[in-house]
Design brief:
Layout lengths: L4 E3 L4 H8 L5 E4 L5 H6 L7 E4 L9 E4 L2 E5 L4 H6 L1 H6 L1 H8 L4 H6 L2 H7 L6 H7 L3 E4 L3 E3 H4 E3 L2 E2 L7 E7 L3 E8 L6 E10 L2 E7 L6 E2 L1 H9 L3 H5 L16 H18 L2
Parallel strand pairs: 1-3, 2-3
Antiparallel strand pairs: 4-5, 5-10, 6-7, 6-10, 8-9, 11-12, 12-13, 13-14
Length: 264
């Protein structure tokens, strides 16, 4: 691992100031991806800005008709939160299925979203539930946040502060997971929200995406049968040692049916 300067700011403003000083500075949230990349010498930041000491970035609050979760809130905290389990059980279940206990107790919501791994679970929750990503500079709608593989709408010096999730009428997340890493080979979150039906898919492509045909069918009739005959093209989907593009396309339909059936 290369040498780097370690910084431990106590406020978002201090973290943003440290991030803007130049060099290849990186924010450290849960560290489940960044530290591993540094060990493999795939990343060599000049500065590591640890966000763990910023109290304002953690916590879960019920606000109006939604729930706002701080960027530094651990997956395990989301999974066991009584507020999340009562209002958005799909989100609590998703968080409880991420990785293993170590990952859930170290990984954070903001870190996962900023990294935007194509096989991560949280992007499906944010896109499928029509959440809003709040940063130190602005609010970013879910449909505008994810730009591609490991790419988001975050700009230089921008830090995720929290994510606001509207409470859906019903929702569920189902994934076909890699038995070793527990990453989603394909994961689907289906939700009936106040702004309409949304179906978000993770693991299948270079970034999370919505399936408009399924959303239209479910808006007309919320039933597993409504999506049973709808498939996504395999062209452009991920293909690797775990699953071919064609198999992933098949899994999208299967996981969507199961998500619709499980939604409550």
């Amino acid at each position: 691992m290369h040498a780097f300067n370690y910084q431990h700011p106590k406020s978002v403003a201090d973290a943003a100031a440290a991030l803007s000083k130049g060099g290849d500075a990186k924010l450290l949230a849960g560290g489940q991806s960044l530290v591993a990349a540094m060990k493999l010498r795939l990343a060599a930041p000049t500065d590591l800005i640890d966000l763990s000491g910023i109290k304002e970035l953690a916590g879960i609050k019920v606000e109006g008709a939604g729930i706002t979760i701080g960027a530094m809130t651990r997956h395990a905290e989301v999974a066991r939160s009584e507020e999340v389990r009562a209002k958005i059980p799909a989100l609590a279940g998703l968080a409880g299925g991420i990785g293993d206990r170590m990952v859930r107790n170290m990984g954070t919501l903001g870190g996962s979203l900023a990294h935007n791994d194509p096989v991560a679970d949280y992007p499906a929750a944010v896109l499928g539930l029509n959440a809003t990503v709040n940063t130190n500079k602005r609010k970013i709608a879910a449909d505008d946040f994810f730009k591609g593989m490991f790419e988001t709408a975050l700009q230089t010096g921008e830090i995720i502060v929290s994510v606001s999730f509207p409470v859906p009428k019903r929702a569920a997340y189902i994934k076909f997971r890699n038995p070793a890493s527990r990453y989603a080979i394909v994961g689907v979150l289906a939700a009936e929200t106040g702004s309409g039906v949304r179906v978000a898919v993770t693991g299948a492509a270079s970034s999370v995406f919505r399936v408009a045909a399924m959303e239209k069918a479910l808006a007309a009739k919320w039933s597993p049968d409504a999506v049973a005959g709808i498939s996504v093209p395999s062209a452009g989907l991920n293909s690797d040692m775990h699953a071919s593009a064609e198999y992933r396309a098949h899994l999208v339909t299967v996981m969507a049916r199961r998500a619709v059936e499980a939604a409550k």
